[in-house]
Amino acid sequence: MGLLDRLSVLLGLKKKEVHVLCLGLDNSGKTTIINKLKPSNAQSQNILPTIGFSIEKFKSSSLSFTVFDMSGQGRYRNLWEHYYIKHRRIPILFFANKMDLRDAVTSVKVSQLLCLENIKDKPWHICASDAIKGEGLQEGVDWLQDQIQTVKT
Ligand SMILES: Nc1nc2c(ncn2[C@@H]2O[C@H](COP(=O)(O)OP(=O)(O)O)[C@@H](O)[C@H]2O)c(=O)[nH]1
Ligand SMILES: [Mg+2]
């Protein structure tokens, strides 16, 4: 951020800008989640499979998010590491999405299957979500916003 932008954030004239890397298996609902977080007049009605990655934006009450929405396809996974900075204490938000499906496992079970309790060096949180209805998404974004605001800039 340039000096003027920082000043605008300090004065409350502008939201602080943050970058988010969105990763996950293909077809898990990443693009649908991001789309649902945009204002309704900016949402697309027809979500196509992501090729490579796309850059999306949405806002929370005090932050302006730029999201790198990565394709989950194997041949694009080597792109991920270019956007991921290993040694920083970056918060990780997990969505256990498609909770509306009859066979969906609970978010507790998902966190066990992914061994999330082994993540000791970064704050993490898991939310059950239904991206079609938009359920569980705000809880996740609120957590992310809290985490980012407690990190010193
Ligand atoms: N039932 C259900 N379908 C979902 C949910 N989220 C996404 N989908 C559907 O899953 C498919 C893949 O979604 P998409 O956002 O393209 O997945 P991505 O590949 O991870 O970006 C689409 O047909 C979505 O409508 C959800 O929470 N519940
Ligand atoms: Mg996608």
SSE layout and pairings?
Layout: H1 3-10, E1 16-22, H2 30-36, E2 53-59, E3 63-70, H3 80-83, E4 92-96, H4 107-113, E5 124-128, H5 137-150
Parallel strand pairs: 1-3, 4-5
Antiparallel strand pairs: 2-3
The structure holds guanosine-5'-diphosphate and magnesium ion.
Magnesium ion binds at residues 30-31, 50, 69.
Task: Quickly list its features.
153 residues, alpha/beta, Rossmann fold, three-stranded mixed beta sheet, two-stranded parallel sheet, binds guanosine-5'-diphosphate, binds magnesium ion, ADP ribosylation factor like GTPase 6, metal ion binding, GTP-binding, Small_GTPase_ARF
What does this structure look like?
With about 150 residues, the chain is α/β, with parallel strands linked by helices. The protein has a single domain, classed as P-loop containing nucleotide triphosphate hydrolases (Rossmann fold, 3-Layer(aba) Sandwich), CATH 3.40.50. It is about 25% helix and about 20% strand. It contains five helices and five strands; from the N terminus they run αβαββαβαβα. The strands form two sheets. The chain has a three-stranded mixed sheet with strand order 1-3-2. A two-stranded parallel ribbon has the order 4-5. The protein starts with a helix and ends with a helix. The model has no long low-confidence stretch (mean pLDDT about 90). The structure holds guanosine-5'-diphosphate and magnesium ion. The site of magnesium ion has 4 residues, from helix 2. It holds the Pfam family Arf. Keywords: GTP-binding, Magnesium, Metal-binding, Nucleotide-binding. It comes from Colobus angolensis palliatus (Peters' Angolan colobus). InterPro entries: P-loop_NTPase (IPR027417), Small_GTPase_ARF (IPR024156), Small_GTPase_ARF/SAR (IPR006689). GO terms for molecular function: GTP binding; GTPase activity; metal ion binding.
